[in-house]
Design goal:
This protein has 13 helices and 30 strands. By secondary structure, the protein is of the alpha+beta class. The termini are far apart. β16 and β17 (about 345) form a beta hairpin.
């Protein structure tokens, strides 16, 4: 039977928007694609598709993939799909084959674990495929195993044990949006219904004369700030606290809530109190929304520090999480709105996004969900308060700037009141005397693809954090140093793959490029180790744009007292 014949025979392409599929395109080594689509047909399921020989080999996975190696998911092989199906997201009309909503839940490339294309074809025929996924949500080593070695359709999808595996990891229950558009299933279905209604109208509406938010929702990633050294003067700026917590994008749609970190981890299960508050607000407003904000420790009206969230960030035991909610409450402080209903606001100025956010939060009373502080033209007042109360820093944002998803921009400046940043762990030393597990951490940052040694720290640890770090680092141990220049610590060293990120506060950078008096604050599994670079003040050409000579006297006070940010190089 010709390739795609079964696929095409089942569909009426005059009724469905699914692609018919062009001529087959042979794959080339290293470019094999995969996609996972969430599909609400007669039963909700997930479709896994792997590119092979110009088509997408496809399996329906009723419960979706699991990142727990102990959980084996049934995967029913279905007809081959065209390569173009990787981009399909929308609604298949009722009455058509597979009628229902389709979402692109994950996508990326994959590679066989054993051999090349010839070996992959043979493994598929034999019924055991082992492969590495390089997706936006799923990573690492997996296997598809046919339940009988003949031509049966029933397979098992299994996650191998690696650094991406998680016991009890129900990722499909927590990550509920499209990687292509960040829409929920409900949003996709709603937009399709709206398009169908508008299609029957015979007259076209005139285009609005004013700027309106676009309905095309891009892939959403947090906007990033540049490091500044002074408070900008003049109109057009607003000032906010630099919160000391976990940056997340919060996706809320009725009962479905995700709290997605910069490293694409969902923290909704660690913070069910925040997820519950978002659920209640979405139900009250009767529409989904996407917020940018920070999860912070909160005791009454007092902001906590990142260290107070450490035990809670990684907790999976529900009883312990309930204890944290009672004893160490947290809140999501929202400071930006990216989407409401099916309308995207990322191209709108901050002033518009902020006004819409304030309307969304009107009469919102949950202590787990709070509106961030924003003071227009009030940088000096906020600086005085921040210095008095020991804040981490201040954010300065331009009111006329759009939200540049995933980009670092001069429109957002972070002004630090203490020297601190993330570093990558490249190794550890043996403990001394009565200390257990680890003596000190060997720290580094990336520069032009090389890991640069920044110093070591043995301060700021509790017995529990030492045990946790040892458990994290031991599986990553390697024989050689990953640093460009191998450090020579004063105790025997163990080298590790540079994958664990920690937050460190310190006094300053030395002339030799080392940290002076570094202190460990916590592990940051919400940050990608590959993005960690040495932070410092904006380069002079950037400073001239945001800091005219008349503002030189208004340098941030802590930048002067902690010379680290004054001396650091970007």
């Amino acid at each position: 039977m010709p390739p795609l014949e079964t696929y095409r025979r089942k569909r009426d392409f005059s009724a469905t928007a699914e692609p018919r599929g062009a001529a087959l395109r042979p794959a080339t080594p290293g470019s094999l694609r995969f996609v996972i689509q969430k599909h609400a047909a007669s039963h909700l399921h997930f479709d896994l598709r792997l590119e092979l020989d110009g088509v997408m080999k496809s399996w329906a996975v009723p419960k979706g993939p699991s990142i727990d190696p102990q959980v084996k998911r049934l995967a029913m092989q279905v007809e081959d799909h065209p390569i173009e199906y990787n981009r399909f997201e929308g609604t298949i009309p009722e009455g058509e084959y597979g009628g229902g909503t389709v979402m692109i839940w994950d996508r990326g490339t994959y590679e066989p674990l054993e051999g090349g294309l010839d070996e992959l074809r043979e493994a598929f025929k034999k019924g055991t495929i082992k492969f590495l996924l390089h997706g936006e949500r799923l990573h690492g080593s997996w296997a598809l195993v046919r339940m009988n070695r003949g031509a049966g359709r029933q397979w098992l999808l299994i996650k191998h044990r690696d650094r991406y595996a998680r016991t009890g990891g129900n990722i499909v229950g927590r990550v509920l949006t499209s990687v292509a558009t960040q829409r929920t299933m409900k949003s996709i279905a709603g937009e399709e219904r709206a398009r169908a209604r508008s299609a029957v109208k015979t007259s076209e509406r005139r285009a609005p004369t004013r700027t309106t938010p676009t309905r095309v929702i891009p892939r959403l990633e947090p906007m990033l700030a540049r490091l500044g050294t002074s408070l900008p003067e003049g109109k057009g700026w607003t000032f906010e606290p630099k919160y000391d917590g976990i940056r997340v994008l919060a996706f809320a749609d009725g009962d479905a809530v995700s709290l997605v970190t910069r490293n694409q981890l969902d923290k909704a299960s660690q913070f069910p109190d925040i997820a519950g508050a978002l659920t209640a607000l979405s139900r009250k407003k009767r529409r989904p929304f996407v917020l940018d904000g920070e999860i912070v420790a909160y005791a009454g009206r007092v902001l906590g520090r990142f260290q107070e969230l450490q035990e809670r960030i990684h907790e999976t035991n529900s009883a312990k999480i309930a204890g944290h909610i009672r004893n160490s409450p947290a809140a999501l402080i929202a400071f930006d709105l990216l989407m409401e209903g099916v309308v995207s606001y990322v191209k709108e100025p901050l002033a518009t996004r902020r006004a819409t956010l304030e309307k969304l939060f009107a009469r919102q009373r949950s202590p787990a969900l709070r509106l961030g502080v924003s003071i227009e033209g009030g940088g000096d007042r906020l600086l005085e308060k921040a210095t008095k109360e020991g804040w981490e820093g201040i954010m300065a944002k331009r009111l006329d700037a759009p939200y540049r998803t995933g980009k670092r921009s001069d429109a957002w400046l972070k002004l630090k009141l203490e020297a601190r940043q993330e570093f990558v762990v490249g190794g550890w030393t043996e403990p001394r005397r009565s200390r257990e597990h680890i003596g000190s951490l060997l720290l580094g940052y990336w520069k032009r693809g090389k890991l640069i040694y920044a110093g070591h720290t043995g301060a700021g640890f509790s017995r529990r954090t030492l045990a946790d770090l040892a458990a994290r680092l031991a599986p990553l141990e390697r024989k050689t140093s990953a640093f460009e220049t191998e450090p020579r610590p004063n105790a025997p060293a163990h080298w590790t793959r540079p994958e664990v990120v920690v937050e460190i506060k310190f006094n300053e950078w030395t002339a030799g490029g080392r940290l002076r008096r570094p202190v460990f604050l916590g592990v940051r599994d919400d940050k990608d180790a590959r993005t960690v670079v040495r932070e410092g003040p904006a380069r002079q050409r950037q400073q001239r744009r945001v800091r005219p000579a008349a503002t030189a006297r208004r340098t941030v006070q802590a930048t002067a007292t902690s010379r680290a940010t004054a001396k650091g190089a970007a």
